[in-house]
Amino acid sequence: MPPRWRRRPADRRNEPRAAWKRPDRRPAGEPRHASGREHIMSTVIRSLGVLGLTICTGAAWAAEVPQQITVSAGKHNRRQTVVSFAMPAEAAKTSWRLRDEAGNVLPLQATPRGQALFVLENLPAGQSRTYRLEQGQTPQGITTQREGNVVRFLIDGRRVLVYQGDKSALPPGYEPQFQRGGYIQSVYSPAGRLLTDDYPPNHKHHHAIWSPWTKTVFEGRHPDFWNMGAKTGTVEFVAIDDVWSGPVAAGLRARHRFVDLTALPEPKAALNETWDITVFRAAAAYHQFDLDIHQTCASESPLVLPRYHYGGLGVRGNRQWDGKANAVFLTSEGKERSNGNETRARWCYMGGKVDGNMAGLAVLCHPSNFRAPQPLRIHPTEPFVGCAPEQLGDFAIEPGKPYIAKYRFIAVDGPADRDELERLWTDYADPPTVVLK
After folding, report:
1. How far is CA 97 from CA 7, 119, 124, 140, 154, in A?
2. DSSP state of 199
3. Domains and CATH numbers, the chain
4. For 279-417, where are the alpha helices, taking DSSP H only?
5. Can the peptide bond before residue 139 be classed as cis, meaning omega within 30 degrees of 0?
6. Rounded-to-integer distance, Cα 46 and Cα 29, Å
7. pLDDT in tens, 115-165
8. pTM of the full predicted structure?
9. 8 A C-beta contact, residue 225 and residue 213
């Protein structure tokens, strides 16, 4: 077939043919003898470089994933600090990492909660650092083991905590009304020491970490969701919605239900509760995890909470700490067991010796919590601490107005380190800021 010549435009017919030719649209530096197939492949490669994450995922949400983040320490020195920023929940299906300007790589984890998490190793106050976001595998940091509705969290094979969904087995001789699920059954220090108790004989309704209300008014009745021996109220496990894990954190979402057993003709739900537990791989010196509690009315009736000295969050320490002389308490305000009860605090440490070695568990109260810093219930002779906002007066959980409480827990080997706990609370309450690009 003879070659097909294009006719020169009328306004360029007097130019020499050599001066009028199709513009070279090949990118600079590409050999002029490249074949059509080679040209196509070159274009694809350039497109991958330009589109980056979007091409790799092929998903609409990829446009919402930042390609660069800048984290600023703010007014505080940062060390092994958990940092979070918004990221599409769908991104949790992909492995991510951060690379700084020196080429150092940090694991990054997208979660089903629409967050991205990483641990900032060291950043002095007033300084910033920029990272590029990229896809790539990083080592698994935390693992979970699920057996039915019991979930164990482990770091390098070491236990961190156990969530008990279904009703747990009662100790011999316990009455059936004390049996329940929907709580944290045990918490461990990095050295593997058990820091908590479950069904202690002097308070059969206590568990490692749980969150019922005590003195309540519901539709004119008075169910007690804490003291289950009275058989007026209970908290039921409903379901585990998801369990997830990765290089930076692992977590679960569980649902519970507060049931008024005095309602007729049958028990009636008063509250629906959601727990979000997130366990972090932050520093080797301690275990760190968050508990976010979300409670809503199960009907059009509010749950009224009159003033009372305990109810809300409860933490029960190791049975070896029982007795006035065997447990140590320290609050952010410098209070101890003798003078800390019914005082407000940003954090509280409870500890004692476990098989001859000192260890403890601190609860940190988020500043966004209702009536923060919340008042504490510290038992005078038993290893128990709780956060009880109702100490400051009556309030109610009303339809359409959820009660939200957030706590961070620090499990350590050794005595309370006040400066370190204050630093960790600051990281929790006033975290580094992140700018996305």
Report:
1. 55, 11, 22, 12, 22
2. S
3. 66-135 (2.60.40), 143-436 (2.70.98)
4. 337-340
5. no
6. 13
7. 999 999 999 999 999 999 999 988 889 999 999 999 999 999 999 999 999
8. 0.86
9. yes
